[in-house]
Amino acid sequence: MATGNISFVTEFILVGLTERLDLQLPLFFLFLATYVFTILGNLGLLTLIGLNSHLHTPMYFFLFNLSFIDLCYPSVFTPKMLMNFLLKKNIISYQGCMTQFFFFCILAISECYVLTSMAYDRYVAICNPLLYNMAMSPKVCSSLIFGSYFMAFSSAMAHTGCMLRLTFCDANTINHYFCDILPLLQLSCTSTYVNELVVFIVSGINLIVPSLTIFISYGFILCSILHINSTEGRFKAFRTCSSHIIAVSLFFGSLSFMYLQPSSTGSMNGGKISSVFYTNVVPMMNPLVYSLRNKDVIFALRKTLSRRMFQL
Predict the structure, then answer these.
(1) Which among 22, 34, 63 has a CA at the least distance from the CA of 46?
(2) pLDDT tens-digit series, residues 111-148
(3) CA 264 to CA 284: how far, in whole Å?
(4) Cα separations (Å) of 72 from 55, 76, 78, 297, 298?
């Protein structure tokens, strides 16, 4: 059997979210609406932050990057997912699958580290407010974002490089709605030991390190909040952090369920449901979570709309 980076498979078939025919059309419209809402929501948040100078602060700088990631993230796989609901066979080329896999990795991991940077920003704002301007200077913020994208790019290169060395022979049906790492490893006709080792190490680092950083940050934040004497002050501090806690819980919870469990057919089918949360639900929810619960964003929206009405 030939080995190396030569692949006998030139295309893959994506099974999709479900094979039940009666659910295909309802799911198509559901995920189409979710996708449109996600694009409009994140694009709107990007526009608001860009147009309103009072939102040009470290917190909204990180939120701008999060919205940019959430704008691009669903576009990597949702179009193919929607096609799967309408076509009998949803085919993706080998090159297209590897490209989709690379961008999925880089965007998912970027989101992990941007959420971590946002947790650090909240920690400094609440625990060290007098040092906030110095600790979260433009240089520091830019370094944190650069580090987030650098870690994401390095990890995506490691995963994709290891995937390209595998040989896919006869089996070409991916039990998923996009080219994810675990379903692809199940199709390989060569040893996946190195890939599994890389998944364990790289995914472990990219999930555990951000999770620990966020957990420790919010541990210090909680201690600081409990030392605030006024009830109003405590409520305001909790309200500042609640949006981020919701986003982190949804994203890291679904990712951990998918990647930190043994691979099997049962877990893969359950993993597809879990994947919906971090690929579709979280990017759609973030604009809602960070806007409806945020007075600054609501004020910016009213200001922008009134400005547009005045121009008309």
Answers:
(1) 63
(2) 999 999 999 998 998 888 889 999 999 999 999 999 99
(3) 29
(4) 22, 7, 11, 21, 24
Widest Cα–Cα separation across the chain:
72
pLDDT 10s digits, 225-241: 888 777 777 777 777 77
55, with CB counted inside 10 A (0-12, 13-18, 19+), is buried
Q: Which residue has the tokens 């297209």?
A: 96
And the tokens for 132? Answer: 């906030």
- Tokens matching residue 298: 């609501």
Q: How many residues does the chain have?
A: 312
Close Cβ partners of 173 (under 8 Å, ≥ 6 residues apart): 12, 13, 15, 187
Q: If you write DSSP's letter for every residue of 140-171 in order, what string do you get?
A: HHHHHHHHHHHHHHHHHHHHHHHHHTS---S-
DSSP three-state, residue 18 = coil
SS3 240: helix
75: tokens are 């576009």
